[in-house]
Amino acid sequence: WGLKPWGGVFHEATDRRVERFTESVSFDRRLYKHDIEGSLAHAKMLVKAGLLSTAECQQIEQTLNSIRQEIEQDQFEYSHALEDIHMHIEHALVERLGDVGRKLHTARSRNDQVSTDLRLWVRDSIDQLDAALEILQKAFVSRAEADADVILPGYTHLRRAQPVLAAHYWLAYCEKLDRDRGRLADCRRRANVSPLGAAACAGTSLPIDRDETARLLGFEGVAANSLDVSSDRDFAVEFVFDLVMIAEHLSGWAEDWIIWSTVEFDFIKLPEAFCTGSSIMPQKINPDVLELIRGKTARVVGDLQALLVLVKGLPLAYNRDLQEDKPRVFDAFDTVLSCVELAAPIVADTKLKRESIEARLEQGFLDATTMMEHMISQGVPQRSAHGLVGQLVRLALDRGVTLADLSVEDFQSVDQRLDKSVYEVLGAKQAVSAFVSYGSTSPKQVATQLAAWKTRLEIS
Ligand code: ARG
């Protein structure tokens, strides 16, 4: 058999530099569990197909299980000469079982094997990430209750725009995370198709049962074209895109909270356990975790970029280039999972600085648009009302006061139709209460959304 299962045709031994250059076991060893899972299913199917006896299958099963244990207990030896995790495990099997071990790779290639392993791994990783995203959503939802009475400035262009409930902010992040979870679920469906039995690229002349391995591995279907599936890494690219979107969402949130925790904004106090200090400036409490969540987005985007370039222009079917997919997929997953897992306690433990927020809430004319809408509901055309409120804002700016500080005479000086009823919508609190539209920041709408989230996330 020799060390290399493909050695038969070769006259020359592999150059050491080639072994070092082509190996992937240094990173694909983390697929060991899925590789063994795939092999166990494959062996069982071979029995049904009459290509392996029940006794042989049992030996293979026992040996694969003990190999798994050795790997888990760090007692397994790796060598660059054996390229990848698939060859390592098979080599160990043959070493222990001889000819019985030599039968496992019947009607199988590493091409369908690696695709199977990676799909199983992506499936598990999606489930793990989905659970972490749910925990993060729950952290936002629990905040929404605790902060129910707080109004924050809503921003556009990072300029004060309109008043919004703090809960509306928290549920906004929940929505983004929910789309992320939806994308992962979609990706899971496309990843969850069995390539096993596609063999190298054309299938096999042996009487295998692909439905059986698919069933044993929990795949929802069997890939219909062996050429396609042995080259297909769409699911990996899609998974990493989904990871990028999560990173982008977390990055935007991190940016918000970095700004909000500055002396200048002073809206929140971040938990000190999730901040770090300066080696020279004694007073510093820096938001490094948030900065790194923002910063690590760059490498995840890089991972996606690498994958897209990797698969571009590859001829059918399998090409060794595809081995380069795994470091990027693993890196993107590890990075994003750690960001999501760190975000949850930060969200849960950050305190709103209510007094500081309230002290400046009437700055920036958050109620101007609501005042305009008040005039519209009294029959003033929108464009006219916009211009008139603009004039009133200018008047208030010149005097250094708020709209609510202006007198009825002031209002009537720009338009006779204005009366004291405008005071009902002025001030951030009244302005928030004036909202009515679906999905708006109106207290009623936000309460409805919050209740829906609690039901959905099964929070009592
Ligand atoms: N290690 C390879 C990968 O990750 C799988 C092996 C396929 N090798 C081959 N010569 N067909 O893609």
From TrEMBL:
Positions of the Fumarate lyase N-terminal domain: 9-302
GO biological process, one term: L-arginine biosynthetic process via ornithine
Gene Ontology terms: cellular component: cytosol
Record key words, sorted: Lyase
Coiled-coil region list: none
Domain Argininosuccinate lyase C-terminal residues, every copy: 365-432
GO molecular function terms attached to this record: argininosuccinate lyase activity
Family the entry assigns: Belongs to the lyase 1 family. Argininosuccinate lyase subfamily.
Protein name: Argininosuccinate lyase (ASAL) (Arginosuccinase)
Full-length numbering of the shown residues: 224 to 683 of 683
